[in-house]
Design goal:
Layout lengths: L1 E2 L14 E14 L2 E9 L4 E8 L5 E2 L1 E6 L1 H9 L2 E11 L8 E6 L1
Antiparallel strand pairs: 1-5, 2-3, 2-7, 3-4, 4-6, 7-8
């Protein structure tokens, strides 16, 4: 179950260490039903490619994510709607507890 929440923030939180950092490309294969593809490249680490299906709904809805290979991602990305890049980081405790995820469009 995904619960969609969005906040408008002004800058990166001060005093919180950056734990992980990703560059992501994401696009939509379909919007009704919602079918999304995403490439998550961890800085200094591995890259994952994900196919995501979302149910209809508003604030809370079901979401199913499955790993895919780069070749399938590239095939789907050619026809994706609004494929874009973003930068994501996790700040907070080094053990991941109490962290905050932030996504910034590039």
């Amino acid at each position: 179950m995904e619960i969609e929440r969005k906040w408008l923030v002004e800058g990166w939180p001060q005093g919180l260490p950056l734990v992980e950092e990703y560059t992501m490309r994401q696009g939509y294969v379909s919007v009704r039903p919602t079918v999304r593809i995403r490439e998550e490249a961890k800085t200094g680490g591995e890259t994952a490619w994900v196919l995501c299906f979302k149910s209809a709904g508003g604030l809370a809805r079901e979401e199913i994510e499955r790993p895919i290979d780069k070749a399938l991602f590239d095939d789907l990305a050619r026809d994706a709607l609004a494929l874009g890049e973003a930068h994501s980081g996790e700040v907070g405790a080094a053990n991941g507890e109490g962290g905050v995820n932030a996504l910034v469009a590039l």
